[in-house]
Design goal:
By secondary structure, the protein is an alpha+beta fold. It has two domains: about 240 residues, Hsp33 domain; about 55 residues, CBS domain Like (Alpha-Beta Complex), CATH 3.90.1280.10. The chain is built from eleven helices and 15 strands.
Length: about 350
């Protein structure tokens, strides 16, 4: 780990802790950076425990949730950010959806046998569990939809996030994330496992675009003997990256180190300004009415295929809610919908 460039070990708790499950926007003017910091606790427990994922899957999905929160809370308009991975690894699919201003839902698909083999062989790092594939980030404002895609090539999610911003927005971006499993005791003394996650994302946004310039990506056909011209990174951004590299996983997940306290530790020499926190909610958008509207668009064959023992049962992969429908009611709804359209 790089040497800690922080000038002193601060022991004074800044005022105004937002607590867990809240995102803190911040700015450091002398370094020309803006960013967001978050620490997740009870919300993460609620999402992960309802699915009963293996520990390695929970840990990986928690990291994707953290990344989505850091990105989604930057949306200025009503809409949603969907972060989705599709890959050939034991965890083949993860979907996290953030709906402005604060709603979150998530789920993962995985091969349990492959997860067991990966764990037993010690090949259960996040990069190994995802394998190769793509990570897609979709911003949906209703009338407008934008999607950026980054390759997953046995790389960490932090590296994937850096690559996404470099190729899609061309903004120097640094991100640090960590996930930890906790163990407490109930009032009866029984062990209670929980989850915590934290992250900090910073972006370099000086007034001069010349200062944003980054080192060129190497081209695929560059000969081995070629020497790239020397590149000098902006001093303010280099200092920011050095400070970010000093963040430990414990600082990101320890409930005694609030995001405000961590930001103060990092940037109090330069002066860090924070804004009011955004509270996060475990809030799925599924409903019986929404699903019914989908079912009435089915034709007779699709309705028949969906009917088992005289019922149509739909389970939400995000929140595990189960909805039951009478096929006759669905058919009646379809007829009613056609009459209204005519």
């Amino acid at each position: 780990m790089p040497a800690d460039t922080r000038k002193e070990a601060d022991t004074t708790e800044p005022a105004g802790n937002a607590g867990s499950d809240a995102v803190i926007p911040f700015q450091v003017l002398p370094l020309d950076i803006r960013g967001r910091a978050v620490q997740l606790g009870p919300l993460l427990d609620d999402i992960l425990h309802r699915h009963d994922y293996p520990e390695t899957v929970s840990r990986l999905l928690a990291e994707v949730i953290t990344l989505t929160v850091l990105l989604g809370t930057s949306l200025k308009l009503d809409g949603k950010l969907i972060v989705q991975t599709q890959s050939d690894g034991p965890v083949s699919l993860m979907v996290v959806e953030f709906r402005t201003p604060q709603s979150l839902r998530a789920y993962a698909r995985f091969d349990r046998d492959r997860i067991i083999l990966a764990t037993e062989s010690g090949k259960d790092s996040p990069a190994s569990l995802m394998g190769t594939g793509v990570l897609a980030m979709t911003i949906d404002h209703g009338a407008h939809r934008y999607q950026g895609i980054v390759k997953l090539e046995n790389s960490s999610l932090e590296d994937v996030a850096r690559q996404y911003f470099r190729q899609s927005e061309q903004i120097p971006t640094e991100v640090r994330m960590a996930v930890a499993q906790t163990l407490t005791r109930s009032d009866e003394g029984a062990p209670v496992h929980g989850w915590r996650a934290g992250g900090v994302l910073v972006q370099f946004l000086p007034e001069s675009e010349d200062r944003i310039r980054q080192n060129d990506l190497p081209a695929g056909d560059v000969p081995d003997h070629h020497q790239s011209p020397e590149f000098n990174e902006d001093d303010a951004w280099q200092e920011t990256r050095n400070l970010m590299a000093t963040i430990s996983d414990v600082e990101l997940t320890d409930m005694d180190v609030s995001p405000e306290r961590l930001l103060y530790r990092l940037f109090h020499e330069q002066g860090v300004r924070t804004w009011p926190a955004t509270r996060l909610l475990d809030n799925c958008s599924c409903s019986a009415d929404t699903i019914h509207k989908v079912l009435v668009s089915f034709d007779d064959e699709e309705i028949a295929e969906s009917t088992i023992d005289g019922k149509i049962i739909v389970d939400c992969e995000f929140c595990s809610s189960s909805y039951e429908f009478d096929p006759d009611d669905v058919l009646s709804g379809r007829i009613l919908q056609k009459d209204n359209e005519s």
